[in-house]
Design brief:
The structure is a homodimer of 193-residue chains. The first copy, chain A, has 193 residues and is mostly helical. Chain A has helices at residues 7-25, 32-38, 43-50, 53-78, 81-93, 101-116, 118-143, 147-167, 174-190. The structure holds a DNA duplex (30 and 30 nucleotides).
DNA sequence: TGTTTTCTTGATTGACGGATCAATAAACAT
DNA sequence: ATGTTTATTGATCCGTCAATCAAGAAAACA
């Protein structure tokens, strides 16, 4: 049965299964066997392709961040003006591609992972800096030197809304979540002081 | 050596050690032996008093929430007027008794724990509802029907600032953290629309 | 004094899980 | 044909850890 060129397919399946399993159990205490089983292969094969559980986790994290990055890039390209781009970033943060049940659960756990794993912390740092930089770029022309502080607030609130959603059951309400953050953004923008 | 009346002392020591260890390692993957050792006793004794690791975790979580609750109660009692009480709640959230390195690290992990452990979720739910209710009570007289939405935003931002602090190294800056949230609060309050 | 209760631990058990390995088989190259 | 590379798994090793147990020592009590 062995077909050739399986590596990318297997890896993708494992990454997907990892996010699903972490999201499902709400914990990093998922076994390689669980992940492999969901991905339709033996645990030995998972180790064969990734080397270690750690690497599987990191690949899953990279995948989530990549998806999110793509969503933001798309929103930025489609938006007009500083205000439009800011709204785009916020909306992208709660777009269905990222703001789904398993992804949110996994996100929270990757946050924890980055407390232990230096590489995970590095990845999360990149995400945070890029988000911050994007926000600042479009906030500066609108509110000047307050940009930095507001960007920090926005970043924190986005993360906060995320993890609070992780606690709730049921289908996440991306639009509602975006609205809360957007409301904050509007208040800050209309303060022309 | 056996002195009498050790139970509360041992339990308190274990709770403290648990928070320290979770905060130190940044993970729930702490062994009972690690906790017991830091608390100056054998792991068997820890099991003797708490029955299971799970119970130890829950006790630690209760302890953190109790400390936070006391801080908020104190702030509310000392504050005057709706606006003052709101500021008190925000400041209490970042007071040194709660906003210290280990506690923040533990907090994030308890968030994760509540995804798995029903009792942990229940505790976290109580905290969130009480915070929300406190905020709403004092927001309503100031901004009326927008109170609910703003309270949700404030809660999310507080949590967000917390977990972002968990990622940073070094001594946490409670005053700076409080200021970010306070700024948001001010903007919302000055909108008399 | 003797018995019971409280406190304490070292040793052990039992389960689980990450990682490795040997073995099988298809695809491909020469 | 034959050898090499890629794919794949079942079985296994080794370590870890929560939980239990048996036993001892000291206080309290009768």
């Amino acid at each position: 049965m062995p077909k050739v060129g399986m590596e990318p397919i297997r890896k993708a399946a494992l990454v997907k299964a990892t996010i699903t399993e972490i999201g499902r159990t709400g914990s990093l205490d998922v076994t390689v066997s669980q992940i492999a089983k969901r991905a339709g292969m033996s645990s030995a094969l998972a180790h064969h392709y990734f080397g270690s559980k750690e690497q599987i986790f990191l690949a899953a994290m990279r995948h989530i961040l990549t998806l999110y990055g793509a969503e933001v890039r798309g929103a930025l390209a489609a938006a007009d003006g500083s205000r439009g781009r800011l709204q785009g970033i916020v909306r992208a943060s709660f777009a269905p591609s990222s703001f789904r049940r398993e992804t949110i659960g996994a996100w929270l756990n990757f946050y924890v992972l980055s407390q232990t794993l230096p590489e995970a912390r590095r990845l999360l740092g990149i995400y945070q800096r890029r988000l911050n930089s994007n926000l600042c770029n479009d906030l500066r022309p609108l509110i000047g030197m307050r940009a930095e502080a507001v960007a920090r607030g926005l970043g924190a609130m986005i993360d906060g809304v995320y993890i609070r959603e992780a606690l709730k059951g049921g289908t996440p309400d991306g639009a509602g979540a975006a609205e809360i953050v957007m409301e904050y953004l509007e208040r800050e923008l209309e303060t022309t002081a």
